[in-house]
Amino acid sequence: MSLFKARDWWSTVLGEKEEFDQGCLCLADVDNSGNGQDKIIVGSFMGYLRIFNPHPVKTGDGAQAEDLLLEVQLRDPVLQVEVGKFVSGTEMLHLAVLHSRKLCVYSVSGTLGNVEHGNQYQLKLMYEHNLQRTACNMTYGSFGGVKGRDLICIQSVDGMLMVFEQESYAFGRFLPGSLLPGPLAYSSRTDSFITVSSCRQVESYKYQVLAFATDADKRQETEQQKLGSGKRLVVDWALNIGEQALDICIVSFNQSTSSVFVLGERNFFCLKENGQIRFMKKLDCSPSCFLPYCSVSEGTVNTLIGNHKNMLHVYQDVTLKWATQLPHVPVAVRVGCFHDLKGVIVTLSDDGRLQCSYLGTDPSLFQAPKVESRELNYDELDVELKELQRIIKVVKSQGVWPMHEKEDDLNVSAMVSSNFDSVSQAADVEVGTDVVPSITVKITLQNRIVLPKVKLSIYVQPPLVLTCDQFTFEFLDRNPDGTPRVIQCKFRLPLKLICLPGQPSKTANHKLTIDTNKSPVSLLSLFPGFANQSDDDQVNVMGFRFLGGSQVTLLASKTSQRYRIQSEQFEDLWLITNELILRLQKYFEKQGIKDFACSFSGTMPLQEYFELIDHHFELRINGEKLEELLSERAVQFRAIQRRLLTRFKDKTPAPLQHLDVLLDGTYKQVIALADAVEENQGNLFQSFTRLKSATHLVILLIGLWQKLSADQIAILEAAFLPLQEDTQELGWEETVDAAISHLLKTCLSKSSKEQALNLSSQLNIPKDTSRLKKHITLLCDRLAKGGRLCLSNDAAAPQTMVMPGGCTPIPESDLEERSVEQDSPELFTNHKHLATETPVPEVSALQGVSE
Questions:
Q1: For 629, phi and psi rounded to 5 degrees?
Q2: What is the DSSP letter of 770?
Q3: How confident is the model at residue 536 (pLDDT cuts 50, 70, 90)?
Q4: Which helix (H) or strand (E) holds 473?
Q5: What interhelical angle do 710-720 and 659-706 show, nearest 10?
Q6: β pairing state of 184-187 and 192-196
Q7: Is pLDDT larger for residue 453 or for residue 292?
Q8: DSSP result, 117-168
Q9: How far apart are CA 250 and CA 263, in angstroms?
Q10: Region labeled Disordered — which residues (predicted)?
Q11: Would strands 237-240 and 201-206 be described as parallel, antiparallel, or unpaired?
Q12: Separation of alpha carbons 124 and 322, rounded Å
């Protein structure tokens, strides 16, 4: 039993699916029994009114049938219930019930029962007021210093205060500048109403000022009638608290002074009668309700504050005195007296959980039984210890989960269909004059044990698309230790998916030559289906055409061990070059030749690569400028709309002054800019696809040039291709620049001083691409001088490597890109970039991931 948990004295649950708020709970001797015992009055938004008189047989009992004195279903939702002297000619207590469009005052009376069913209680309507405006909340008190009776003030949702002198309507006043209603309370010492406006200000209005102010019913009359109808309503005092208020309570535990308590969303305020702050307390949790209930010492006030963490805190001014746990989030809290038990805390939740509780703890009469002592058998303990040590040793040797079982738990395999689909599943069936094919990939998941929530994700690089890229299996496989596992499966797609046979071209702007250490292989055996097999004279040349029209030509030398790939567009070279190397490796593996190797001895085509980078960066800058311009035009469009709306709402319309023409022109500009942004995004996507193709080609050539291992090529790919998608917030240029700078200052650094430099932790779009191009050039230079790529900082000493004859070292003092002539003019031409807008298809392994 926790000391800090509220002790349940009596509790019940009200109805089913009913809702309640802070005004739905009230404690008072509503039946005028005269014994000083409170009754619990609860109203709900479903229109139910209930009155309880709890008397549990023992602590913690639930509600008994006789605890419910009265239950009545009213036709309208109950917004608030209050008990006071609301009927003229008597000082008996009556019940006031506030509905959205009605105020009803009832008399609750009990009849002594002569049988075992107990007393009978009745609810009698004394009078009612039909409201012309929708009510929000109400307060009551002896307005104007009247004796022996209470008046009621109702606040409507549009900020009007309606005062009722018991059975008659007195007057109504609009609060100045009211937008949304706030909590309302009445201070009898200052004879004023205190509320919190939508401006987050605590405002006080004198009752006398309200009574003599302009009548709300005359608010729409002419200006001349307004001047003679009353005084202007002014605020007595105001205090800005900077947040919305949840509730207001005014207490006075002595005759000399009173305090205004305001519960905000994050703070708790105590104000003096004149609006000055007495103290405030910043709350740690979001509050839900509060109640100042007593003063235990001179000048201090105790307050109950409930919060949304099911806690009820007891504060003495700003000092936390006690914290107790509740079984629900309270929306209303009261303190009452039941059966001579004073200080019972009554809480109500928004779903109807009503509880009477008290603080502290109950004495525990439980005593732990004595444990029977028994003698220990040390021989049996030794045997058991040896057995446990044997089991631990076996488990350590085999592992907690054997590797062969781990591998067999879940197996993912993929099988690509040998033929294209008879009916293409592509969204865009045609690209120009070409028909876009589709192919079916069958993915098989084999599991040994049952697992829930297994996700299969499939990714392809653009412009390839999938009909479905996410699959979820409710019950498939599960790792016994509960740790998540990821299994990957890579597979290749046929080249004909995006590439068709084409006519070879003798001339091209961009050419590459790949050297091998074996005799050239017939292109017919490497690329079956891409050439006319009856034409034996053309076995050393082959043409490829991408979907959309781009042409690539592949030539095999008859006299040397070289292959040339040429195209009008630089980025188109990667796919065919990569496919050629993979097929050559597969061909010689089937022949049993293991020493086959490819190399690249030409000049690294950085100039063409840099032009693609500049084009991509220019589109990013254009997109940023277009978005800024679109934002400005959107702000201008909304400003014109607001001005036009003000003109149209005015009772005396003024000339539009060509605002409608300006609105129409701004609208056309917004539409044009939105189209331009959308077009630029499409061009940026195509440019990023071409840039990734060119980046793959540069990485491939660097690997062949320096004979890099698979791990080193993986480091280059991680540095040059960190993003799958390019966005304005995080782009390719700044990400790659940071990654290459890290490599230059770690594994490719020349001295320890470079390793000590710290890189910027913030990635922002650069002003230009000169810094990135310098770093890429410097990376190639460091690799040419023997630098070695590795992930550890303490890289080994640079290894002496023989540079290819066609690669000229780049001086570090001159980091600008420059053109370099080729070594073999008969096989290479100087590359020149050709600007193109055709998207480059990019094919790589599909990757399926299951979790």
A1: -65, -40
A2: H
A3: low
A4: strand 470-477
A5: 170
A6: antiparallel
A7: 292
A8: T--EEEEEEEEEEE-SS-EEEEEEE-GGG-SS--EEEEEETTSEEEEEETTE
A9: 12
A10: 811-851
A11: antiparallel
A12: 42
> Residue 820: pLDDT above 60?
no
- The phi, psi pair for 766, rounded to 5°, reads -75, 170
Which strand (E) or helix (H) includes residue 40? strand 39-43
Give me the residue label for tokens 């005799």. 519
Question: Which residues neighbour 564 within 8 Å (Cβ) at sequence distance 6 or greater?
Answer: 511, 512, 513, 514, 554, 555, 557, 827
Residue 230 DSSP SS3? coil
Residues β-bridged to residue 487: 850
Count CB atoms within 10 A of the CB of residue 89: 9
Extract the tokens encoding 696: 């793959």
Average pLDDT, integer, range 581-604: 89
Residue 503 token pair: 């006519």
CB atoms within 10 A of CB 101: 12
* Contact of 684 with 619, CB cutoff 8 Å: yes
Tell me what percent of the residues of the chain surpass a pLDDT of 90: 33
Classify the phi-psi angles of 200: left when phi > 0, otherwise alpha if psi is within -120 to 50, otherwise beta. left
CA-wise closest residue to 214 among 222, 593, 94, 263: 222
Kind of pairing, strands 39-43 and 48-52?
antiparallel
Q: 510: which 2 tokens? A: 């961009």
Among residues 331, 365, 326, 372, the alpha carbon closest in space to that of 348 is found at 331
Using a 10 angstrom Cβ sphere, with 0-12 exposed, 13-18 middle and 19 or more buried, the burial of residue 720 is buried
User: What CA–CA distance (Å, rounded) separates 570 from 690?
Assistant: 9
Q: In 3D, which of 844, 824, 833, 843 has the Cα closest to residue 514?
A: 824
Q: Which value, in Å, is the radius of gyration of the alpha carbons in the chain?
A: 42
167-204 CB burial, b ≥16 within 10 A, e <16:
eeebbbbbbeebeebbbbbbbeebebbbbbbeebbbbb
pLDDT bin (cut points 50, 70, 90) of residue 374 is: low
The span from the CA of 558 to the CA of 523, in Å, is 12
DSSP structural state of residue 273: T
Helix, coil or strand: residue 842? coil
pLDDT class of 427 with cuts at 50, 70, 90: confident
Give the pLDDT mean for 423-433.
Answer: 72
Give the number of other Cβ atoms within 10 Å of residue 613's Cβ.
21
At 177-223, the pLDDT tens digits run: 888 899 999 998 889 999 999 889 999 999 988 888 876 555 444 34
Determine which helix (DSSP H) or strand (DSSP E) holds 598, and give its type and residue range: strand 598-599
Least confident of 123-127, 477-481, 775-779: 477-481
Q: What is the pLDDT of residues 244-258, one digit of tens each?
A: 999 999 988 776 678
Range of lowest pLDDT (462-466, 595-599, 756-760):
756-760
**3-state secondary structure labels for all residues of 745-807:** HCCCCCCHHHHHCCCCCCCCCCCCCHHHHHHHHHHHHHHHCCCCCCCCCCCCCCCCCCCCCCC
Of the candidate ranges 527-541, 589-603, 610-624, the one whose mean pLDDT is the lowest = 527-541
Q: What is the pLDDT of residues 104-117, one digit of tens each?
A: 999 998 877 655 55
Identify which of 738, 733, 803, 735 has the alpha carbon closest to the alpha carbon of residue 768.
733
Mean pLDDT of 651-675: 88
Say how far apart CA 383 and CA 141 lie, in whole Å. Answer: 84
Q: Which residue, 519, 510, 571, is CA-closest to 540?
A: 519
- CB count in 10 Å sphere of residue 62: 12
CA distances (Å), origin 276, targets 205, 247, 290: 15, 18, 21
Closest CA to 263 of 296, 292, 232, 300: 292
Helix axis angle for 770-784 and 606-649, nearest 10°, is 160
Cα angle vertex 473, ends 469, 475, to 5°?
170
Residue 123 and residue 125: Cα distance in Å, rounded? 7
Structure tokens at 380: 């049996």
Nearest to 808 by CA among 832, 849, 780, 827: 780
Positive or negative, the CA dihedral 556, 560, 562, 566 is negative
